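Exercise 7. Predict the structure of DegT/DnrJ/EryC1/StrS family aminotransferase from Paenibacillus sp. SYP-B3998.
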Amino acid sequence: MKTDFIRKLLDLPTDAWINDELAYKGGPAVIPEDVRKTNFPIITKEDVMQMLISIQQDADSVIDEFTEKYRQYVGANYAVATASGTSSLHLALVGAGVEPGDEVILPAFTFIATAQAVVAAKAIPIFVDIDPQTYCLDPNQVEKAITKKTKAIMPVHVHGLPADLTRLRLLSNKHSLRLVEDASHAHSASLHNQVCGSIGDSAGQSLMADKNFPVGGEGGIAFFKEQKDYLRALAFLEDSGIDYRMSWIAAAFGISQLDRLPYYDAIRARNAAYLTNALSETRLFSGPTVPEGSKHSYNMYRIKLSPEKVGLGDLDDFKVKEAIQELVMSEGVFAREWQNVPIPGHLPFKNRKGFGNGYPFSLSEREDFGYEIENFPETLNMLRSTLTICRELRSPIEYERIQAYALVFKKIDANPQIIREIVEKNKNLTVLYERDARLG
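Solution. The predicted structure, encoded as tokens:
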């Protein structure tokens, strides 16, 4: 029987590692290759016992039990467990009253499922740029994008940081719009002590196995504030015949995992705080901005790069980023882009074929949908100048591992000349959003 269990200890970190030669140059990696794997979700005897209990119950009762427990945890008024995050977003939009031909405003930086859910609701996604500090939907850009066809604003709590729902609620009220949250990264995240998913008129959230709160495989949940929206969503499922039901196996796993979610949240918060503090001691790196009143859930951890602070300001920022990514990876920390092209630059929105014959885009009177990526300069700048740590901080990793991660960045910060060397070697590198669009 194979196991993911790591049978080798990571050496206790020491600041002396900063002075070692970079692994890129043949020195010892901070995290050796055979101890780099992190495991999540963690399967325990509680999960096994819950599965044994649930298998003896009616499937619908298991799903109902999960739905009710998680609804109470979030503080939403109504909830429907679904088969995926995308289906939950679709249901949240339909429940909020989004109809064919309506426009829904959403950020240019998100996962493609946010926009696909809008199309699934037969509505038109209208993308706007992000706030350069939080990387969430910029309320200043939202108001400029509102038209007579706008039906909803759909902010995304990117990486687990709540979007500015206070200002977006004021905008939605001012223009009589619905506010639909994409909370797929925001399990346990909150704004002024109110949990994401319970703040807007409705919300969708992914619960897939790679999220902070995983169920058994694929899954999602839609939340609703008002009963009429909840009933509209249920009526849609009944009338359309679409089967968005969550698997009882996923629900059973979610029941037992929910008990450990506060522990996972605490570990992530501790590790993120440690890393942010360590990065503040470097010149080249800085951690995420978290506005007052916001609780970040750190589904991902995005690192800002400042090449000019180490004498690399004359180099192309995207080339510096890729050089740093190569160095970070060689030291044992898996850092990646998480998107390389704004979502409106992906083929489904460049081509606008939709369900066929351009539907639902054909319902719009627009000649210009504003999908050219040059319309989103803050998103492009962010893509050029940041890196993301994903799964590695999501796992309940050991304290010595987060210390090792911090030392990786300090080690690279001490060697800017190697970054310059790599950039000069890769002179013909093209900017990342001019390459084929990638997800994840």
